[in-house]
Amino acid sequence: MKKIIHIAAQEYMRNVLKGSFILALLSIPLMIALGVGLALIITNLENDSSPIGYVDLSGLFSDPIELSEQDWKVEIISYETETAAREDLESGKLQAFYVLSQDYDTSNEIHLYYQEEPGQNATRQFNDFIQLNLVAQRYPELADRVVAGDNVVLRSVDGKRELPDNGPPLNIILPLIISFAIVMLILMSSGYMMHAVVEEKENRTMEVLITSVSSSQLIAGKVIGILMIALTQLLSWTVFGILLILIAGQGMGIEWFQEAKIDWYALLAIGLLAIPTFITASALMVAIGSTVTETQEAQWVVSIFMLLFWLPLWTIGMIGDTPHAPLPIILSFLPFTALMTISIRNMFVVVPYWQIIMSAIVQILFALTAIWLAGKAFRLGMLGFGQKISLKSIFRKPVEVRE
Amino acid sequence: MHKTWLVFRHELITSITRRTYLLLTFGIPLLVIVAFVAISLVRDGSTLGEVNRIGYQEEQEIKVEGYIDRSGLIEEIPSDLKDGLLISFDDEASAKLALADGKISAYYLIPDDYIESGYLYYVYPSVTPLSSEGQDWVMRWTLLVNLLGGDQQYAHKVWHPVDLEVHNLDTSAGYDRFSEEDCSKPGYACESNPIVQTIPLATIVLIYIFIAGGASMLLRNVANEKQNRMIEILITSVDPIQMFTGKLIGLGVASLIPTLIWVSTGFTLLRVGGGTLNLPIEFSFPVSLLFGWLVFFLLGYALYASLMAGVGALAPNLKEANQAVGLIMLPMAIGYMLSILPPTIEVPHDGLALVLSLFPLTAPFAMVMRLVIGDVPAWQVLLSAGLLVLSIVIVVRGVASAFRAQSLLSGQPFTVKRFITTMFGGV
């Protein structure tokens, strides 16, 4: 037991103190920060807060009312003549100006003049401004209601799923983000697992190690060490996630983050599938690490695993459109794709509990097979040291040696 | 020269006869062709069904739906909606029953506080955020007409208050969201064809893949030969510069072959393909553009491959070389990412796009993106290519010093400082 703890501690410290680990630890927060940053840049570029002007030749809006406060508010200035508005446009005071034609009341005709494409907020607010004043002429008490528009909430027949028309809320996306983080974690941890086996084979430390510890102690120590690394990452990401939700929701008052609720059903599904998937991936990495002789050789095998893990993300459109079609259901049972597929489907519909349980059973069976395979490959790897081990030889029945 | 030729020939033959290379070069285009043929066959088989389905949809465009009005707002159904299209229910249970019986396709629940909150619940059998099958506009229109006292003409005016006519006073301006569609060249101006819209992005992705792939091949090659001590034997008979040049050109040609095969396969498929994968008749891909693409691809490859070769020559083994690759990949990834951002593609000739297309490390991506969209001043293209050539000359001189025997055989660990000083001729 002491030796296992010693190996686990050594494996943990060796990886955690590396610069690449710190980078991996920061990768998810950095990716989120990068995504948010890019979204902010794009929004900034699409919007423009400088004023817009209008010339009302129809005379309908002689005493207009202003729009209520909103994001990216644009000042709307009235001009007597088109020439005056054009002068301000050319001097850069305005980003664009509108001219309501004389027969606007019957034709709806409005002319837009600009030198550079006006911000999306500006054109939207002018549209709202016209709508507000049209309604206010007859029903001033309803004007704000009409301009604000309807909040259409899509609801499933059983009432279990509700989706507002301005995009899915955080609690629906949260399980997918958690699955994404867990897949990243599995890929990183299984990578450490493979390196732990291959590197020591490559630099011949394994030969020395195996003289003082048994192969099962060695593997157990490494698995525990790497599991601790994974837990460290998971803990730091969770803390980061909670901090982000608290800062954005409570600190910055962003409504979307304030609605964060935990969908326990989706979370339970993730837990049931993540544990066997983690074991399958780690065990298979040990098997691969035992059969190859060099790190480089093992890397292309890892890239195939990565493709399988990300496959559901590439087909998210198809899964979202037809979450109960045969292909999404098949992907929900296959190892590696199950975790992400079920999380994506849970985002759109409530995946039947029997499918989650069946998938978890399938994942457990795969995990057990992978452990058996890893054990066999590792023993063969020890025997045929420095040699490449074929898949065939792993499944071959051992020859009995009679004394 | 003869030795350079020998190295070139050896690198080219060894690269192009590798199984993974053949798979990448021919396998992927083959897979695309098979998928394309399969899609075409499926589409051909279902054409009639699709036409019929569209015809049926036109007849039955608006489905019958139900509503439960708890706000008491709805007094009449707009006359422009067919009779019986919206069925009123007293409670949700009876609406659910009608939904289960197939009498209605969905129902709306209008809460008591609709006027204050604006909330409207649309109970729909298949709720997915990606689904656009709903017709909630029917209820929104009905509610608006009723809010405005049943005056449909007035409601129409409020529903669609602006009939816009656009005047762009800057005659030299490029495409914006109010512009008319233009499908004669690649870019966002072709709204009806997603293929034409995606071409600038696809071109940059392709150039990134092959520059990164070719440069990595050279890095692995140099680092591998250093690790297995082959380089010690080689430099006894070949001058390091001759060796480097042979490798650079050999692997460059090796990475150009799949690029050309991919591009020509893609272009042919788009030309012969039917349905949505077809390019518009007026679309043309000028030869000058292909030439520009090729020039910036080769210059980009030469710059990045030389930098990678420098890393390979200075790192003591493949493992350390792989760890140091990030240093080279970072500017490449930044250039690529910034070039595919919508603001850069939508405003291709100013600000960020202009700077990126002149800076040598990002120019291969940004300039190609600008060339694909078109109307790049000739002086900018020449300046960008000139700056790239100048950078290549400086880097190749640096790599040449790294390829000297004492650097190749030193066994010192790779450091950023040592790499930068070597690249600028410090060794």
Question: How does this model look, in words?
Answer:
Chain A is an alpha/beta fold. Chain A has two domains: 2-40 and 162-396, no CATH class; 52-149, 3-Layer(aba) Sandwich (D-Maltodextrin-Binding Protein, domain 2). Chain A has helices spanning 2-16, 19-46, 82-90, 104-107, 120-138, 143-148, 170-202, 205-209, 215-251, 255-258, 264-291, 295-314, 316-321, 326-333, 338-348, 353-383, 391-395, and strands spanning 52-56, 76-79, 96-100, 109-114, 151-155, 162-164. In chain A, the strands form two sheets. A four-stranded mixed beta sheet of chain A has the order 2-1-3-4. In chain A, α1 packs across α9 (215-251). Chain B folds into two domains: 65-159, D-Maltodextrin-Binding Protein, domain 2, CATH 3.40.190; 191-424, no CATH class. Chain B has 17 helices and five strands. In chain B, α7 (194-227) runs antiparallel to α9 (240-272), α10 runs antiparallel to α14 and α13 crosses α14. Chain B starts with a helix and ends with a helix. The model of chain B is unreliable at 45-60 (pLDDT under 50). Chains A and B meet through α2, β4, α5, α6 and β5 of A and β4, α5, α6, β5 and α11 of B.
